[in-house]
Amino acid sequence: MGKGLSVLAFLFFVSLTASAQSLAYKTMLSGLYDDDFPLAYLNQTELFSKAVWLDTREKEEYEVSHIKGAKWVGYDTFSLGSVKNIPKDQPIIVYCSVGARSQDIGKKLRKAGFKQVYNLYGGIFHWVNEGKPVYAGNRQTPKIHTYNAAWGIWVDKGEKVY
């Protein structure tokens, strides 16, 4: 069995018996994130209150639930035109399910001259697992779009939607 398959098998096994903030989850996230791209952590409340929040998931995922006040910008359909009214020095927090897609969009924003772009550590999955609220429209909801059943293993709380 190749090294990659062994790691994947290990992560799957550990994820079946552990919470989303397990060693397996942290290991998975560390493999996704670039060391030089800034992360925003749940304890950074001052940053959270100043930042513009951008949801980089697909529209269907956003409509199931999103972080309150987040603007949907998408991933496959992302365009810099969707952020043209945001000042280049405005703090921005991007997020997706776990942080891979949002990091890609964050890099595009930085390349376009946005100076303070942060990727939400653990994405909306971590947000929900830590008991933070999500919304459908303006109403709080227990639902969380988990992308698919395989990614749903990382969500411990809320009502999973595929």
Secondary-structure topology with pairs:
Layout: H1 3-17, H2 23-32, E1 39-40, H3 45-50, E2 52-55, H4 59-64, E3 71-72, E4 92-95, H5 100-111, E5 117-120, H6 123-129, E6 134-136, E7 139-141, E8 143-145, H7 149-152, E9 159-161
Parallel strand pairs: 1-5, 2-3, 2-4, 4-5, 8-9
Antiparallel strand pairs: 6-7
Signal peptide: 1-20
Protein name: Rhodanese-like domain protein
Pfam families: Rhodanese
What can you see in these coordinates?
This protein has 162 residues and is α/β, with parallel strands linked by helices. It has a single domain (35-161), classed as 3-Layer(aba) Sandwich (Oxidized Rhodanese, domain 1), CATH 3.40.250.10. Helix content is 37%, strand content 17%. It has helices at residues 3-17, 23-32, 45-50, 59-64, 100-111, 123-129, 149-152, and strands at 39-40, 52-55, 71-72, 92-95, 117-120, 134-136, 139-141, 143-145, 159-161. It has a 5-stranded parallel sheet. A two-stranded antiparallel ribbon has the order 6-7. Strand 6 and strand 7 (139-141) form a beta hairpin. Helix 1 (3-17) packs across helix 2 (23-32). The two termini are 31 Å apart.
